[in-house]
Structure formats: C-alpha cells, structure tokens
Amino acid sequence: GDSVTQMEGPVTLSEEAFLTINCTYTATGYPSLFWYVQYPGEGLQLLLKATKADDKGSNKGFEATYRKETTSFHLEKGSVQVSDSAVYFCALRDSGAGSYQLTFGKGTKLSVIP
Amino acid sequence: DARVTQTPRHKVTEMGQEVTMRCQPILGHNTVFWYRQTMMQGLELLAYFRNRAPLDDSGMPKDRFSAEMPDATLATLKIQPSEPRDSAVYFCASGLVATSWAEQFFGPGTRLTVL
C-alpha cells in the first residue's frame, strides 16, 4: 500500500536558519504530493503541492520538488521565522479514478526560537 | 471566508457514554472526510463521503463507530460506547471533487477525552 515517511521531530531552529524536512514515499500509482501545516489548536492547511515529477511547489517561502527517481518531496525554507512554528505533514494522493484519499506522514514538529 | 466548522471543540466523557461529533462542510463541497489524530498513530482516515454517500469507512471500528451525512450541511461521527483508547483529536475535512484533484479543507477538530 501507499505510505509516507518523514523525519522524526521535533526540530528546533533559530530564527533565519535554513529548514529542511525530509519526506519519502511509496505509492502503487503516480501520486500527487502535498505538504500540510498545522498551527497550534488548528486544523491542517494545505501549504504546497506538486502533481508530477520535477514540479516544484512553493508558498510563503517554502518549497518542495517532486523527485520521482528518489521518491522524495523534501520541504525547504531559506530563512525561518518564529511564526513558522507548527507541525508539518507530508502527504500523497495516489493516482486512479476517484481517488481522493490522502495518506499522511506522522508529522514533524518545528519550533523556531528568536 | 468559508470554513469547515466542528462542534464541540472539546469533549470529556466517561467510558461507556455515547459521543456525537458534528461537522459542517464548506457550502458547495461534495466530499467529506473524517480523520483521527493521535500521537502514536498520527492521522488516520476513518471514513469519507461523496455526495452524502459513504465511499469508504474501512478505517473505522464498525462495532462502535458510525458516520452519517443526514444532509449536505451536516456530517456526524458517533461513538457508542466510548472507550479510553478513543481519546484523540477528530478532524473533519471537506472538498469539491470537480477537477483532477481536490484540496481538502480541514476543520479545527474535536478533542475527545474518554476517562
């Protein structure tokens, strides 16, 4: 079946540091890939997505590139802010007619300190 | 600003009691998902509906959990009887299946504690 593996947290960084959160996947079809963010006390929000190989999703300074050869979708940001403190989830949606289920990784908690 | 709403936001109950969680999807969305989030298991899909019909509830313990959509503006998740291992945050998400992919919009969740 499908699965998503992301790096264990928590990750603690100083403000303006570079962020990488690793994500790898296994899928039976040709999946679309997503990063969701969950701020404290809230539901998940879509951060960015990529639907085919070599696509780069980007939003709010975050980026992730769909690498089919390494089955990866690592999240990066050049300079994190305190407001980026949240839990980040990598997810995939497999291909196939009518497939709208998302498979999520376990989440990586990021804390950014001033 | 359209949002998914969930009630109650917090629920504390005793083992054996019935719990009902409610979700109002974004108006016009035709797909609703129920997820459970725990520290140990992360996010698990319990069930999902399309046009109010259940498409997949394989993630849900059938003996005690039930999910319904009595109308397009209300989805419910019921646990009867509740057990301490059901303690978790339950999220509802909705989406509009009209294109090749559909973003899921999450509600704020119901934090359930079963004593």
Write the layout of secondary structure elements.
The complex is a heterodimer of chains A (114) and B (115).
Chain A: E1 3-6, E2 11-14, E3 19-21, E4 23-26, E5 32-38, E6 44-50, E7 56-59, E8 62-65, E9 75-77, E10 86-93, E11 103-104, E12 108-113
Parallel strand pairs in A: 2-12
Antiparallel strand pairs in A: 1-4, 3-9, 5-6, 5-10, 7-8, 8-9, 10-11, 10-12
Chain B: E1 5-7, E2 10-13, E3 19-24, E4 31-38, E5 42-50, E6 53-56, E7 65-71, E8 74-79, E9 88-95, E10 105-106, E11 110-114
Parallel strand pairs in B: 2-11
Antiparallel strand pairs in B: 1-3, 3-8, 4-5, 4-9, 5-6, 7-8, 9-10, 9-11
Q: Describe it for me?
A:
In chain A, the strands form 3 sheets. In chain A, strands 2, 5, 6, 10, 11 and 12 form a 6-stranded mixed beta sheet that branches. Chain A has no helices and 12 strands. Chain A is mainly beta and 114 residues long. Chain B has 115 residues and is mainly β. In chain B, 0% of the residues lie in helices and 54% in strands. Chain B contains no helices and 11 strands. In chain B, strands 2, 4, 5, 6, 9, 10 and 11 form a 7-stranded mixed beta sheet that branches. Chain B has a 4-stranded antiparallel beta sheet with strand order 1-3-8-7, with no helix packed on it. The N and C termini of chain B lie far apart (36 Å). The model of chain B has no long low-confidence stretch (mean pLDDT 91). At the A-B interface, strand 6 of A face strand 5 and strand 9 of B.
